[in-house]
Amino acid sequence: MYTNEIPRLGIPSLCMSDGSHGLRKQKGSGDNGVSSSEPATAFPTAATVASGWNPDNAEKIGRAIAEECRHYGVHVLLGPGINIKRNPL
Q1: In sequence order, what are the residues at sequence separation of 6 or more whose Cβ sits closer than 8 angstroms to the Cβ of residue 19?
Q2: Does the structure show a pLDDT above 90 at 9?
Q3: 28 is a domain residue
Q4: How does strand 16-17 pair with strand 76-77?
Q5: What three-state secondary structure class fits 76?
Q6: What gap in Å lies between CA 78 and CA 83, rounded to an integer?
Q7: How many domains does the chain have?
């Protein structure tokens, strides 16, 4: 996914990608599936990381995800997110 550039304002196009437990970047035009994704690390779920009560581990995971985003030219990662789509009841 890419934003539109705005040349008159000097704003370049930005690459965005998603991934619930790390980066998921589609190759080429992609098909919104995982069969044609670039290789990337599958990290533990956010609930699993939080259960460890170790903020240093969470920071290391964040840095590793950022390195993969840089490697693939991703400017904005649309995840991981907080699990707010489920009813707590």
Answers
A1: 25, 40, 65, 77, 78, 79, 80
A2: yes
A3: yes
A4: parallel
A5: strand
A6: 13
A7: 1
The CA-CA-CA angle for residues 86, 83, 3, to 5°, reads 115
14: in domain: yes
Residue ranges making up the domain that contains 44: 7-77
Element (H, E) at 47: helix 46-51
CA distance 68 to 50: 22
Q: Is residue 18 assigned to a domain? A: yes
pLDDT value of residue 84: 59
**16 with 3: CB under 8 angstroms?**
yes
The residue whose two tokens read 């995971």 is 61
Terminus-to-terminus CA distance in the chain, angstroms? 35
Taking the model in full, what pTM does it have? 0.77
